[in-house]
Design brief:
heterodimer; A: alpha/beta; Dihydrodipicolinate Reductase, domain 2; 60s Ribosomal Protein L30, Chain: A; 2 domains; four-stranded mixed β-sheet; 10 strands; B: alpha/beta; fumarase; seven-stranded mixed β-sheet; 5 helices; 25% strand
Chain lengths: 281, 164
């Protein structure tokens, strides 16, 4: 049994929010530069140059990459031999979000009621938290400030098993074709296949934060990641949606066992400002 | 293109109020005739800056409000993403233009905003109407006053997938 103070978790989440909001990952910057080198649209190249310059300015001046600093999504894999002491974990996470979004000059984008009141909570709380209990005595934390320009382009569909690989490819292509231009391309496409409706969506979200220089361990799904990427890029949507070769930087797939009667597929679209930060306590 | 001069900001909540003013025949909080609206909800300004990161938000959410604003004299909009046929028809009717700024280039754009003041709906926070003075603001003509739409024309040139 290992004891971890709630305050230490809060401090870590605070640091991760600021890091993710200001600093694009090396993997994202490399992918953007590679896309710039390959892009044949002149306008597309100038847009990618603006994005790369933007990311340099944000990191050097410690300001947000994008004004939409998102819903704060927090993934926590908590070792079953960890005992969290000194406070309520959920309140600790709320406090970390409140303090980071205030101290860091990040935009507060959360409204209390989704349909009727829509009053801003003024401190970007609450975060959306996904926890898993795992073996061991560590806590693995990933923070994803998720903007809604791209979240709104996301979709879940319950495919029939008979839809097969073609069904998955067509569904993802359709999602990108219909709303990809609004989602700030070049995109990162997180896909969850299997499980249930909600677990497919959670896998898809997690996949938006998988490093861009990694692939699914199963060669069949790795090939599928490449097939979908090529198909999406053949749409010609391009940087900022105004035409070009690079509509997506990467497709990341996670899978899970599912029911004999179904094949849930979730597509979580992430913009080029793919912000996430991770640490292990 | 590079834009210099005055822009007014408005996004979802401010549009709802502007549209209600027009529908009820009440005066608008500023004279929008001949002006450009920038769809943005800036992040807070850190010390030493006129404004925080301030990139465009998705324009389509404003589509249902935009024709009435164009008919009332608005010259154009700056945002990102596709517009509805109704907006494009209203643009053609009024000789208006729709500019794009690069979504997510919020830190770069913020450097081109020289001053910012809230002129209406302060209670809306980031969604309040701000008056920006900009210099060298990078923009693209996405849809012109004849209805030519870069979201149709641009991707068509680079599409290698056959239409389904």
């Amino acid at each position: 049994m290992r004891t971890i103070e709630a305050d230490r978790i809060g401090g870590t989440v605070y640091d991760l929010i600021l890091k993710a909001s200001y600093e694009a990952g090396e993997d994202v910057l490399s992918a953007l530069q590679a896309a710039r080198d390959k892009e044949s649209s002149t306008l597309g190249c100038s847009i990618l140059d603006q994005i790369l310059e933007n990311d340099r300015i944000a990191a050097s001046e410690h300001i947000a990459i994008c004004q939409d600093t998102g819903v704060c999504v927090i993934f926590m894999d908590i070792g079953q031999d960890v005992h969290i002491t000194g406070g309520d974990l959920n309140e600790t996470l709320c406090s970390a979000v409140r303090k980071a979004y205030t101290d860091g000059y990040l935009r507060k984008s959360m409204v209390d009621d989704p349909l009727y009141d829509r009053l801003n909570t003024k401190d970007n709380t609450p975060p959306v938290v996904h926890t898993r209990i795992v073996p061991g005595e560590k806590i693995d934390i990933t923070v994803i400030p998720k903007g809604f320009g791209s979240e709104n382009a996301s979709a879940v569909r319950m495919l029939a098993p008979a839809a097969g690989e073609t069904g998955v490819i067509d569904f993802v292509t359709e999602a990108v074709q219909s709303k990809g231009a609004n989602a700030c391309p070049p995109l990162i496409i997180g896909i969850g296949i299997g499980g249930t409706m909600e677990s497919a969506a959670i896998m898809a979200k997690r996949m938006t934060a998988r490093p861009l220089n990694t692939w699914n361990a199963d060669p069949r799904y790795q090939a599928l990641e490449e097939k979908i990427l090529q198909r999406v890029n053949a749409l010609g949507i391009g940087p900022a949606g105004v035409g070009g070769n690079c509509t997506a930087l990467k497709v990341n797939i996670e899978t899970a066992p599912t029911h004999i009667a179904g094949m849930p597929v979730a597509v979580n679209i992430c913009c080029h400002a793919a912000r996430h930060a991770r640490t292990v306590l | 293109m590079r834009l210099f001069g005055t822009l007014y900001t408005a996004r979802d909540a401010a549009h709802k109020r502007l549209a209600a003013c027009l529908a009820e025949g009440k005066p608008l909080p500023f004279d929008l005739r001949g002006q450009l609206l920038y769809y943005v909800g800036p992040a807070p300004a850190s010390p030493g800056h006129a404004v925080g990161p301030a990139g465009p938000t998705t324009s389509g959410r404003m589509d249902s409000y935009t024709p009435a604003l164009l008919d009332a004299g608005l010259l154009g909009m700056i945002g990102k993403g596709k517009r509805s046929p109704e907006v494009i028809a209203a643009m053609k009717r009024n000789g208006a233009v729709y500019f794009g700024a690069v979504g997510g280039a919020a830190a770069l754009i913020a450097r081109r905003i020289k001053s910012s003041e809230v002129i209406a709906y302060e209670d809306l926070g980031t969604e309040a109407i701000h008056r920006f003075t900009v210099a060298d603001f990078p923009a693209i003509v996405l849809i012109d006053s004849l209805g030519n739409d870069l979201y149709e024309i641009g991707p068509a040139k680079y599409r290698t997938l056959s239409q389904e």
